[in-house]
Design a protein that fits this description.
294 residues; five-stranded mixed β-sheet
């Protein structure tokens, strides 16, 4: 009997608190696995999910294995034999996550596995489901963020139909008991541009010198603002490979805006209990603006 396996894993931020999950199906039977790690990376969670899934097989099996991690798929199908031959080293240095690769390799030897890459967040039902399970596992060990009542809160959301296509953004600004809202639309854009525009426009709603929380569900915005932007600035808005940063016009605007404002960036991804109302209102503003664009 063929066993179908879907796995996913991630950390937020990366590195940070992580979660992983796996779904195994054989005929009409299904097994669901998940777990978490308080200090890890995206790639370690992807590998951990694969290890747990294969460990759950009680006998040699024919496996159709689906993952949205190119790191996992290419590592196991193209690179691992070279790593083993080189004593688990690459260019004289131990490969990253060597402990997990060494645990995964013998498990793959017990089964006949076809490895498939599936693009994440494109509607594959099992990929979407395992993504939610991994996120739930991470959130189960994620402490609530303690926000000061004295600071402003910017909830920023963007949306796009087509990517590229018509898009819109929405912002909710809360200062004490007062709330302000702002939204806008563009006839042809991308989702990342709309998420980033929402943050830039939201920050322009507060005066220079003020402090604020910025709450976004966009990994692109959160990671860019907290980790990548410093290197981009030093390299004159080029990535490490020498190519220009995408959406650099908006990143430059953001960089100019944050100079005279004190910002605490918060990933609101999956935090429905704590930030759901503000983020949903911002998303509603974006959807309404997109309807007007149509």
């Amino acid at each position: 009997m063929v066993v179908t396996i879907y796995t996913d894993g991630g950390a937020d931020p990366n590195p940070g608190i992580g979660g992983w999950a796996a779904i195994l199906r054989a005929g009409n039977r299904e097994k669901v696995l998940s777990g978490s790690d308080p200090s890890t990376t995206n790639n370690r969670m992807e590998l951990t999910a694969a290890i747990a899934a294969l460990e759950a097989l009680r006998r040699p099996s024919q496996v159709e294995f689906y993952t949205d991690s190119e790191y996992l798929r290419l590592g196991i199908t193209e690179h691992i034999s070279k790593w083993r031959a080189a004593n688990w080293q690459r260019k004289g240095r131990p490969i990253r996550n060597v402990d997990l690769w060494q645990a995964l390799w013998p498990l793959t030897e017990h089964h006949s596995i076809r490895w498939h890459w599936v693009r994440g967040h494109t509607g594959d039902p099992l990929n979407e489901r395992v993504d939610r399970l991994a996120r739930d596992a991470r959130l189960a060990v994620t402490p609530a963020v303690a926000l000061s009542a004295d600071l402003a809160r910017i909830y920023a959301r963007g949306t796009c139909r087509g990517n590229p296509g018509p898009g819109a953004w929405g912002v909710v600004l809360e200062v004490g008991q007062k709330t302000r809202q702002l939204s806008g639309s563009v006839s042809s854009t991308t989702n990342n541009r709309m998420e980033l525009t929402a943050v830039v426009e939201g920050l322009n709603m507060i005066a220079p010198g003020e402090s604020t929380y910025v709450i976004t569900t966009s990994d692109y915005v959160f990671m860019g603002a907290t980790r990548w932007i410093h290197g981009w600035r030093q390299r004159d808005w080029k990535k490490k490979d020498g190519h220009m940063v995408s959406n650099q016009d908006l990143w430059r605007r953001l960089d100019q805006t944050i100079v005279d404002r004190t910002i605490q960036w918060i990933s609101g991804k999956g935090e429905a209990k704590q930030f759901g109302q503000g983020l949903e209102e911002a998303a509603h503003l974006a959807r309404k603006a997109l309807e007007l664009e149509d």
